[in-house]
C-alpha cells in the first residue's frame, strides 16, 4: 500500500484511539461521568458509534485490498448504524433538557449523517474520489465530543477545544488531498464549507435572542 492509500485507513484508526483515550481518561479523572456512561441509551450509543468507526476502518482496508464487492456489501450495515446512532444521539441530548446543548451537540451528528449520505450518493454515481473525501469529512465531524473531554481533563478554556476541532476539520481533508492528488479536490471544498456553515448556523441559533422561544417550543414552559 502506498502512503497516500493508507491515509484514510490510518486516520480512522487514529480517531478510534483518540476517542477511546479521551473518553476513558475523562471517566477516570471525572468519575461522575461513569454513571452517565452506563445508562441504557448511552451504552447503545457508545456501542453503535464504535461499531461504525470500526466498520469505517474495515471498509477502508477492504478498499485498499481491492475487495470492492465485499466493501459494497457492507453499505446497508453502515447506513443502519448511521441512522441508529443519529437518532440515539439526538434523543440522549434531548433528554438533558437543555435546548442550547441539544442544538449544539446535534449539529455534529446531523452534519455527519448528511455527509455520509452525500458520500453514498457520490459512490452510486461512480464518483469514488468524491465519496472518499465526503466520508473522511463526515468522520471528522464526529471528533468534537472527544476534544471536549480533553479540554475538560486539562481544564483548558472551551475555546481551545473549538479551535482544535476547526483545525481538524480543515487540515485533515486538505492533507489527504495534498498527499493523494497535490491539489484541493472540489468535494473537499464542499465538505469543509458545509461543515463550517453548519457550525456557523448552529452558533447563530444558540446565541440568538430567540433561544428562549426555541427552548419553550422544544420543552414547553420550564
Main traits of this protein?
222 residues; 0% strand; mainly alpha; 11 helices; 84% helix
Short description:
The protein has one domain (about 5-210). Helix content is about 85%, strand content about 0%.
Overall number of strands: 0
| Beta-strand percent range | under 5%
Overall geometric form: globular
How many distinct domains?
1
Helix/sheet category = mainly alpha
Q: What is the mean predicted local confidence, pLDDT?
A: 94
Q: Level of helix content?
A: over 70%
- What is the string of helix and strand elements? HHHHHHHHHHH
- The number of helices is 11
- Characterize the largest beta sheet: strand count, sense, and whether it forms a barrel: none
Q: Could you name the ranges where pLDDT drops below 50 across 5 or more consecutive residues?
A: none
Distance between the termini: 57 Å
List the helices and strands and how they pair.
Layout: H1 3-29, H2 32-37, H3 40-64, H4 68-73, H5 75-95, H6 99-124, H7 128-140, H8 144-153, H9 158-180, H10 186-206, H11 211-219
Helix pairs in contact: 1-3, 1-7, 1-8, 1-9, 3-5, 5-6, 6-7, 6-10, 7-9, 7-10, 8-9, 9-10
Describe the structure.
The chain crosses the membrane at residues 7-29, 41-57, 77-96, 102-122, 134-154, 160-179, 191-211. This is DUF2306 domain-containing protein. The protein is an all-alpha fold and 222 residues long. The chain has one domain (3-208). 84% of the residues lie in helices and 0% in strands. It contains eleven helices and no strands. It has helices spanning 3-29, 32-37, 40-64, 68-73, 75-95, 99-124, 128-140, 144-153, 158-180, 186-206, 211-219. α1 (3-29) runs antiparallel to α3 (40-64), α6 (99-124) runs antiparallel to α7 (128-140) and α9 (158-180) runs antiparallel to α10. It is globular, with a radius of gyration of 18 Å. The relative contact order is 0.11. The model has no long low-confidence stretch (mean pLDDT 94).
